[in-house]
Structure formats: structure tokens, C-alpha cells
Amino acid sequence: MTQISVTYESGEKVSYPYGVRVLDVLAKMGSLERPLVAALVDNEIKGLDAQLLSDCRVLPVLSNSAQGALVYRRSLCFLLAIASRQLFPQRRLIAGMAIGAGF
Q1: Which residues contact 49 (CB under 8 A, 6 or more apart)?
Q2: Average pLDDT of 32-40?
């Protein structure tokens, strides 16, 4: 089985099997106790179920960071859209940006 090298926030490099999930890497890193919502994989936001297919650097994205707050907001809007569609299939929900940093 092919191995990939993952570099942690501390600079430590660890080998994992090809296709390992981001969540499994962060669990081994000890990041699960924090308010974890996503990960930065080579400076690109990835979901926790994303598979790692090449050598990369992985950093946790916490809900109390600016990037984490955006992920959290978008996730809540997505859940609202799903619930709205199930309850009111004949209606259309539009969520827009408010002035400032919020929705």
C-alpha cells in the first residue's frame, strides 16, 4: 500500500496510508478536543471526510477562527436550505449577505 507524508502544524512529518481521511489525521494530531470544523490542506479548506491523496501539510480549522466561522455559517445555511426544502418544497429560500461580517 502506498504511503503519503503529512506535515503537522508543529513541522513534524508522519506517514499515513494513501487515502486516509482528514479527520483521522487530526485525531492522531490530538485536535479533536477543540471546536474543529474543517482543515487546511496545503492552504485549501477541506471537509473532515476528505481523503488525502498526496504529501501535504494539514492544519486544523477551528470554529473560533475567521475561516472556521465562515465554514460554520455556510454549513448552517445549507442545513436551513435542506430543512426549508423538506418542509416547504413549493417555496424558495434566499440567504444573502448582510452589511458587515455576518449574514
Answers
A1: 21, 22, 23
A2: 86
Q: Would residue 78 count as lying in a domain? A: no
Assign residue 18 the CATH number of its domain: 3.10.20.30
Mean per-residue pLDDT, 35-41: 94
Is residue 59 within 8 A of residue 22, CB to CB? The reply is no
Apex 11 CA angle, 60 and 61, nearest 5? 10
Instruction: Please state whether 11 falls in left (phi above 0), alpha (psi between -120 and 50) or beta.
Output: left
The beta strand positions in the chain, using DSSP E, are 3-7, 13-17, 36-41, 44-46, 56-62
Q: Centre a 10 Å sphere on the Cβ of residue 69 and count the other Cβ atoms it contains.
A: 16
